[in-house]
Amino acid sequence: MNKDQVVILDYGCGNIDSIINIIEHIGGCAIASNDISIIRQYNKIILPGVGHFSAGMNSLKNSGLIEILNEKKAEGAYIMGICLGMQLMTNYSEEGKCEGLGWFDFETKKFPDISPKLQKVLVPHMGWNKVKLVEKECPLLEDDNRFYFVHSYFVDGANKDNCLTVSHYGELEFASGINRGNVFGFQFHPEKSHKNGMHLFKEFLKL
Amino acid sequence: MAEIRIIPTLTVLDGGLYRTIKFKNPKYVGDPINAVKIFNEKEVDELVLLDISPKPWSDEDFSLFKRISCQAFMPLAYGGRISTIQHVHRVFKAGFEKVVINSIVTKNYSLIKEIAEIYGSQSVVVSIDVNKSLFSNKLTTFIDRGRKNTRKSYLDVALKAEACGAGELYIRSIEKDGSMNGYDLNIIKEISDAVSIPIVAVGGAGSLEHMVQAVDSGAHSVAAGSMFVYQGPLRAVLINYPSRDLILSTIHNRKKK
After folding, report:
1. Active-site residue A189, yes or no?
2. Domain range annotation of chain A
3. Which residue of B has its CA nearest to A149?
4. With contacts defined as CB-CB under 8 Å, which chain B residues touch A15?
5. Chain B partners of A149 at a C-beta cutoff of 8 Å?
6. Residues of chain B that touch chain A, judged by Cβ-Cβ distance less than 8 Å
7. Per-residue pLDDT of chain B (257 residues; tens, 9 = 90+)
8. Quick check: A14 pLDDT over 80?
9. Residues A13, A83, A95, A163: which is the catalytic one?
10. Which of A123, B107, B203, B217 gives a 20 to 30 Å CA spacing to A9?
11. Coil, helix or strand at residue A19
């Protein structure tokens, strides 16, 4: 399998077409699949996701995709979680009080609708926001770029180990990107973030 | 906080891109695919496609919507001709992630709830079109592309839409549509004081200064049609969008009064 070939897990919870569109636009090749024998052939996997955490986790389970994900992760395949896909990689989410894949020692929590300074906060966090690299250089991202976000829950891991990027909303700092070895998770939607998103996918294809 | 979004709205009729004045006299201004490509290059914050065709959807319509969504690497909303949850499923399948509903709202508020439960409240936008009644100066809520006066108060509609789970409200003044002389700030202020969901000001923008006025009146984001397709006093068609630097200095980093 070539480096620029990506499989997107089709487990019924994702904005898959727009991810395929952007990867094809930058010259890569992406397919959507829930077939384990196909997924096994790929070294680049995207775990998309929109919607409810426990629904997402159940769909992953019911499609029998958790084993193959763990197998590919152990093999060193590059795996990218987007939005709910990133949250599923954490230990636990308050959304549906449900356990995740446990790849990152973080929890996914609901945005409070009142800030520490008692200001009203609009939830979901929807719109463009800055993404700051925590310290290490990351091949996929430049520091302080803008990306598009839509989420009501956040990964509570800002500045902890394996936190790649942070963003701010309602005076709260959250992990907008996480990375551990060959696994990446992004809270924002690179497929909806113009050139910064294209850059991210381009660099992912080069890994 | 999330940034103020500056949103071009594309009015589409029978596969072409049109601009209206007070929702009337649609004038052809070009090919929507081409416009989307240009807006993509200009890295717009979000795009809204407003479909004003009176006919039912055809397969050609959907092939156009799909071609548009394939070109759009930004958040994308679709409004027009939606009255059932099946319509909504179809729009999302075509690659959009928000729907804008209007005429159906005052007849069936439960559709808002239904969409919010399946796709999340951020994906359901309620557009409230406000205009003067024919025989009085009273401003009320209009539907059916501005043709029908529901005689309902726009504040009531806004509050009901919020209670049913709408994620955002587009507040459009029909009187201001295509005027390019500024939004109706009173309506924006009145509604934004009453609800706590984000409001997008639509109708009347001709400059970034108008957008600043709307934001200062309580809009969380601003949309415009004519401003982004016309250039100069003679309204020459030229797809345009302010540069990032100009947006930053005029809107995001402006000194607040």
Report:
1. yes
2. 5-206
3. B2
4. 97
5. 2
6. 1-3, 5, 40, 43, 45, 69-70, 73-76, 95, 97, 119-122, 167, 196-198, 220-221
7. 678 999 999 999 999 999 999 999 999 999 999 999 999 999 999 999 999 999 999 999 999 999 999 989 999 999 999 999 999 999 998 989 999 999 999 999 999 999 998 888 899 999 999 999 888 889 999 999 999 999 999 999 999 999 999 999 999 999 999 999 999 999 999 999 999 999 999 999 999 999 999 999 999 999 999 999 999 989 999 999 999 999 999 998 887 65
8. no
9. A83
10. A123
11. helix
Q: Say if residue B171 is exposed, middle or buried (CB neighbours under 10 Å; 0-12, 13-18, 19+).
A: buried
Q: Where are the domains of chain B?
A: 6-252
List the beta bridge partners of residue B170.
Answer: B127, B200
Q: Residue A148: list chain B partners with CB under 8 A.
A: 74-75
Q: Residue A75: which H helix or E strand, with range? A: helix A65-75
Q: Do A192 and B220 touch (CB under 8 A)?
A: no
Strand partners, B19: B27
**pTM value surpassing 0.90:** yes
CA–CA separation, B156 and B166 (whole Å):
14
User: What's the gap in Å between the CA of B94 and the closest CA on chain A?
Assistant: 9
- For residues B86 and B243, what is the distance between their CA atoms, to the nearest angstrom? 38
Contact B173, B186 (CB under 8 A): no
CA B168 to chain CA centroid, Å, is 11
Partners of residue B196 in chain A, C-beta under 8 Å: 120, 122
Catalytic residue among B45, B51, B129, B184: B129
Classify domain B6-252 by CATH number: 3.20.20.70
**Cα(B75)–Cα(B72) distance, rounded to whole angstroms?**
8
Fold for domain A5-206? Rossmann fold (3.40.50)
The model's pLDDT over A49-86, given as tens digits with 9 standing for 90+, comes to 888 899 999 999 999 999 999 999 999 999 999 999 99
DSSP state of A34: -
Candidates B2, B70, B121; nearest CB to A129: B2
Rounded CA separation B150/A114 (Å): 36
Residue B211: exposure state from Cβ atoms within 10 A (0-12, 13-18, ≥19): buried
A104-110/A90-93 β-pairing = parallel
Cα(A106)–Cα(B103) distance, rounded to whole angstroms? 44
B182 φ/ψ angles, rounded to the nearest 5 degrees: 115, 155
Residue of B nearest to A122 (CA): B197
CB contact under 8 A, B95 and A21: yes
Burial readout A53-89 (b: 16 or more C-beta within 10 A, e: otherwise): bebbbbbbeebebeebbeebbeeebbbbbbbbbbbbb
Answer yes or no: A25 catalytic: no
The separation between the first and the last C-alpha atoms of chain A, rounded to the nearest angstrom, is 13
